[in-house]
Amino acid sequence: MAYKSRDTVVMLSDPELMHALPVAVLITQNGVICLANTASLVLLEADTLHDVQGHLLSDFVHTLDKLRSSDRLQQASAPEHTSQPNKPAEFRVRTTKG
């Protein structure tokens, strides 16, 4: 992606773009957090990526929402749903501070 800054075109790589987004973005593999952008770190009250990287995503879902969150992830990853947009949902989160 490119944007213009004082007559200079600046190209952003994918990781830079992800960190520039104002919304939380977490990238997981098999439920384990691999990457998190700045907004995610703020949301999870993490000082660095190391504070969340390698942890299960479910570690940060509030106990009262774990079953609903797990069901939603299983449904969204089912082969018949992978090409469909994922509807928005809200879940309570636990931070690195508890």
Structural features, described:
This protein is of the alpha+beta class and 98 residues long. The protein has helices at 14-20, 38-43, 66-77, and strands at residues 2-5, 8-11, 26-29, 32-36. The strands form two sheets. The chain has a two-stranded antiparallel sheet. A hairpin with a 2-residue loop joins strand 1 (2-5) and strand 2 (8-11). The model is unreliable at 1-5 (pLDDT under 50).
What would a concise description of this structure say?
The chain is an alpha+beta fold and 98 residues long.
Question: Could you give the order of strands across the largest sheet?
Answer: 1-2
Q: What share of residues are in beta strands? A: 15-25%
Q: Report the principal-axis shape.
A: globular
Number of helices: 3
Rg value: 16 Å
Low-confidence stretches: 1-5
The SS-based structural class is: alpha+beta
Mean pLDDT: 85
Helix content, binned percent: 25-40%
| Amino-to-carboxy terminus distance | 36 Å
Q: How are the elements arranged and paired?
A:
Layout: E1 2-5, E2 8-11, H1 14-20, E3 26-29, E4 32-36, H2 38-43, H3 66-77
Antiparallel strand pairs: 1-2, 3-4
